[in-house]
Design a protein that fits this description.
mainly beta
Length: about 230
């Protein structure tokens, strides 16, 4: 996902925190902690009807990937992402164990790819001269990704206390916007030895690679406390 407005993100995070802190005073609310493919998170659950729950979670993940090949170039990638998940859970059975989810992910990511030292492009040793050259690779997804999932929890209908929930789902990220360029830091322009045709060919290779990442698998396990 591309850069979401920071003010909006901080506002939603503040709402999530306030609801978490005040949920102990609110009947039927549940709050919890989760871990999964979206990293670490906190979530809030509020019943809407007998078979419908509203759920909001705030998740954060960061990591590093070494020698990740995109197009013809291997990158060392540092990445972090914040994602807000807003979904409605539908329980088709009265015991409220299995549920189906539908909603959206709203995200803010920060991806910093840097080519490995052995990267050579059109005879120029770019990877060994990053003090002179900048490799500008941008991959931006939409701010909002539709989400569907299925889950199970072991909560009881009447009792308060701790319970767990496990969930599997898919978020559709869509087709990303991709940009690629190599810049001479001294001039702020593409080096003369690198024709635009070569950059365009590399861009096609990059697009073919990232087009395989339109769907993000979501797996999570949550520990939740019910105030009721």
């Amino acid at each position: 996902m591309n850069k979401l407005n920071h003010t909006l993100l901080r506002g939603l995070a503040g709402i999530a925190l306030c609801l978490t802190l005040n949920s102990a005073l609110a009947k039927d609310y549940s709050v919890g902690f989760k871990v999964g493919t979206m990293g670490l998170g906190v979530e809030i659950n509020k019943p809407l009807q007998e078979s419908l729950d509203l759920r909001l979670s705030l998740n954060y993940i960061e990591g590093q990937v070494s020698h990740f090949k995109v197009g013809s170039i291997e990158y060392d990638v540092e990445a972090s992402a914040t994602a807000i998940q807003a979904v409605v859970d539908w329980y088709p059975q009265q015991n409220k164990k299995f549920y189906l989810s539908g909603g959206f992910l709203l995200g803010n990511d920060n991806i910093n790819p840097e080519p490995t030292p052995d990267f050579v492009f059109r005879g120029i040793k770019i990877g060994q001269a990053l003090d002179r050259f900048e490799v500008d690779l941008k991959v931006d997804y939409a701010d909002i990704a539709p989400y569907i999932g299925v889950g199970y929890n072991n909560k009881t209908e009447k009792n308060k206390g701790w319970f767990y929930s496990a969930e599997l789902g898919l978020a559709y990220l869509g087709m990303p916007k991709v940009g690629f360029n190599i810049i001479d830091k001294a001039t702020g322009e593409t080096p003369i030895l690198i024709p635009q045709e070569a950059l365009d060919k590399e861009l096609v290779k990059i697009k073919n690679k990232v087009d395989n990442y339109k769907i993000f698998p979501v797996m999570s396990f949550s520990w939740i406390y019910r105030f009721n």
